[in-house]
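Researcher: Quick one. two chains, 543 residues in total.
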Amino acid sequence: MSLTEERVQLTPKQVKQLETVATHWKNTGLSTAKTDRAAAEAAMQDAYRAAGLKPPRIVVWLKSPRAGATAVRLLKSDLEWPHNLDPMQRSVWDEFWQQCLPQIQSIVGAERWAAVRKEHRQEAEKRVLDTYGHYLEKRVKERFAESTGIWIWKHIRKLYGASMLQEIRVDVEEKTKTNLKPAISQEAFDQIYQQLVVPVTQQTWSSVAEPLRAMMTINNGSLIGRQTWECGFGSHDAGWVSHYDFLRTIGVKGTESLDGITKLTKSCGWWWPYKDLCILTERPVSVKRDNRGRLHNEKGMVVRYADNWGFYAWHGVIVPDDVIMLKEPITIERIAAERNVEVRRVLIERFGLDDYLKNGKVIKIHKDSCGTLWRMDVEGDEPIMVVQVVNSTAEPDGIFKEYFLRVPPNIVRAKQAVAWTFGLSEDEYVPLVET
Amino acid sequence: MFKTPKRKIYRQGDVLIQQIEKLPQGCNLVEWEDRVILAYGEVTGHAHAISTNYAKMYTWEGDRLLEIKPGAKLVHEEHGTIMLPEGFYKVIQQREYVPEAPPRDVLD
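Model:
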């Protein structure tokens, strides 16, 4: 038997299965189900072990990827003690701290913990009593709490260690891929890639995780500039993970070392693995998309997390919250003042193209039996070209409804415009019957 | 001097039916219960439809194709009925231009 014959080929049934599997992984990637913390922690430990590493001793759960990124930046900062945090950072800090404290105490052990407390207590007493006298017990306690806090914070930062993402995520995948490659036929590889990985990646990574990443960079408070992507993307890793998981389900051996990451993909959101600390975050509580899979919500955030972080978008265009929530009505002035061309287009659409045209300087370009072609010049953007057409069938009240359809700016005649809306040339567009 | 005969087209609101010569090999039949639905109105729920006694729908490379038997009527709640002659057709949904994006389907 030659080598090529031994390579895995997909049966017609398995090829057909790919579509169902893609749907399954797409749903996994877009999941807003409650995060299964226990499953995710077990999976995270598997992922560490698969990379030949000891699982971290400290595990912290946060509610959104932005909270995760904020915690990482605090860890990486040179802050001796986090004073002056903004409210968002403060709430991340509080959650992080509350979870770390008992874990650090258990890591250092009762004896050392007692010694540390005693040392800091004495030092605090001495410093405060020396300055203010014996009656300032309250101040002693404060000073004590702060100095032990600093000690623990120092300890956490000494302990958490380097990012293990390269080892856990990149190296393990590379090794798995190299081992599997000779066993899989190129055809099977291409089929899985084209029919599973590409659509799942498109639906989960390109349309959701990418905009999310962009928003985290833009909107992350005063610690901006220290953004780090030392993270796995949990459910948003569905695209590349689906490839190996499919091979596993059809009986290919050698994907075992990715089991942990696969389970993380199925159970939680973004995660940051360090040598002795892992930050895990929850999945979003809602993701809203239009029928093309682009982020879209007319009534609220498109992606929202349990800590209420999220953002707004209109058919895939990320927009400020006021464009969606319309706390104030959109005005011609607001549209004119908007400098981002994409946001301005959304504003025009929300304002109503018909009304916008009526309010602006519109030039009649052409008129024929099909309709009227209008152009409106827009500063800094391509002109808006619309064809005004009349319904062929009357409304119940006998009126023939008029409507506008936007067409490409290079159109010059009304009939050409209407033909374009059906993907036809002006010459081809001669309906025998039109109702 | 003859011009190439134009393909016959019929239009009902935002849906256009264009005649084609035959069905391509390997196109896939789409099952419909009692009406072959060409388009649903987004707001109204109205539909452009033909009885399954007179029409079969197929998909081919992203296009929707129709096989029409004599007597087929294309109906819609708000538009006049169109009698479609026997033959094969392609269904074209009206679309609208969106800057820097694929055109968007118009659904009334």
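Chain A touches chain B through 27 residues (CB under 8 Å).
Researcher: Thanks, that's what I needed.
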